[in-house]
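Record format v2
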Amino acid sequence: MTALLQLKNVSRSFGGVRAIHNVSLTLEPGQIVGLIGPNGAGKSTLVNIITGVHPASSGEILHKGEPIQRLKPFQISARGIARTFQVVQPFPAMTVVENVMAGAMFAAGIASMDDARRVAMEHLAFTGLAAFADRPAEQLTLAYRKRLELAKSLAMNPHILLLDEVNAGLNTTEVEQALELIRAIAARGISIVIIEHLLKVVTGLCSRIIVLHHGELIADDPAADVIRDPRVIEAYLGSRFAERQMVRP
Amino acid sequence: MTRPQLLIFVLVVALLLALPLLGNNYVLRLATITLMYAVLTMAWNVVGGFAGYPLFGIAAFFGLGAYSGAVVQSSGFPIALAWIVAVVIGTAFAVVLGFILLRLRGHAFAIATLVIAEVLRELTNGWTSLTGGGMGLNLPFFGWSPTALAVFFFYVMLGLAAAAFVTTYIVAHNRLGFALNCIRQNEDAANIVGIDTTRYKIIAFTLSGAFAAAAGAVYASWTGYIEPTDVYDVLFSIKPIIMALLGGMGTVFGPIIGAVAFLALDELVWRNFLQLHTGVLGFLIVVLILFLPSGLSAFRISNLWRKAVSA
């Protein structure tokens, strides 16, 4: 069986900096995968490589068995791979519903603007933004703008959703609400890769965790194993702390 | 369009159609120039207004259209064919140029488009065998009466303006306009939501080029004599931008309102302040744009009333 998404020895350099080095992984349908790593580990770069924003310098990316590493971002969106940005990227002067319509019209290819608006309203209702439909996107609070990113991505009718720190900058209540939303999205059968700094969130959501460090993949295991992995502890907390952890029974 | 808008629109169109009945060639000439600038501003508005790319190169397409049409017409071909050739050349040039220049953004795009008209002017100057060089190019004389000519070119320009308006209206209300709107606000995000930004930008650029070239070709036939410094004048690039600013960038009616307002102001100021004409005009435009940053088309009497009450 071909994997939904497969990365084979993917690397990307910016000048002399190896941002991603020789990363291979596969994503199966219906999985929620956590992507973690210290700051600068290359998490966002990996998302940018998959979505075509920064094409891979070498390696191969297969989507349902077909290579996509040469495609442009809009083509990758149209194949059903959607993403959100760490720094939210709305169309500020357009209304909330128009923002979502953009995803429905272009990536999902809905021809009629009326149909696109109807679909957009459904996604706004699902993400709890229906009341703000006709407000300009720039008037939303950060928490709602993050939801708008989600609604926009969902309108693209994806089967893979890459979430780049959707919880950054949110307070505890907002994070709880965002998590519920992500679980509801996963329940629709959409595979999710979530970049996250809050370990509580990752372990609560994901059955599997991928760890990047200095652009290299250092772990790809079930969640429970990853957080005890000495290499992971070392990457986050340094070697001395890792040794101390190992001495304990 | 709302009902009052439609009413005003129908009224304006009816008045325009009846304008030649006045029998005043001065008014007709002024109206033809206004319509020509309305076409140029609507052409600019597709790229500059809807897509938000600072286009400073309308003069390049205007001049190219003028010379393409003039060369064909002076070789003895019928006028309609000359105009069609001009539009085809303008369109083809826009596609090629758009493909190259639309990789640039912001200031770089503005400067690059500004230079195109200068390059074309020099080429036209140098290619004496075809274009007559700096001597200019005379177009065949129609042999019609001045009034008949004035009426004919007025209706041609009106037809062209109508076509540009219908195009603007359609663009603003379909996917192309939606995509350009997204590109203006956040091009990276537009790409990510599945918009083929390159393709839509080239379509917009091509529409701009085609209409500016058509206006240039009609202008050449109308004036009967063109020279490089005239038709590649940088003012043909700048004025449409000011008119769009004045009327409302990225709106449907803004370009027409802006063109009319600018030329009315221009005429008024020129008559009353012969010595200080450009200075006074510039001052008035700065004041208008300062107080109405979204342009005259955003002006509402009710807003004025609300401000007066709350003040």
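The first strand of chain B starts at residue 137 and ends at 138.
Chain B has a mean pLDDT of 88.
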